[in-house]
Amino acid sequence: MLSTLEIRHLIEQSFLPTRCECTIDSGTALTVRFFHDTSNQEILVVTGISLAQLCNGLAIVGLVE
Description:
alpha+beta; 3-stranded antiparallel sheet; 2 helices; 3 strands; 29% helix
């Protein structure tokens, strides 16, 4: 099982060069915010991603693809 810190790092690195920020909501769900490169304006927010389903690297690859 991956720690929440590892999950956040893997997801944020996977979307480079697009900047994104992962936050944990209530310990069970993940929110990912994406930002425009030059204006730093938030362009997309994905909420309610279950942390229980992100138990390994393959699950994160499936999310990112």
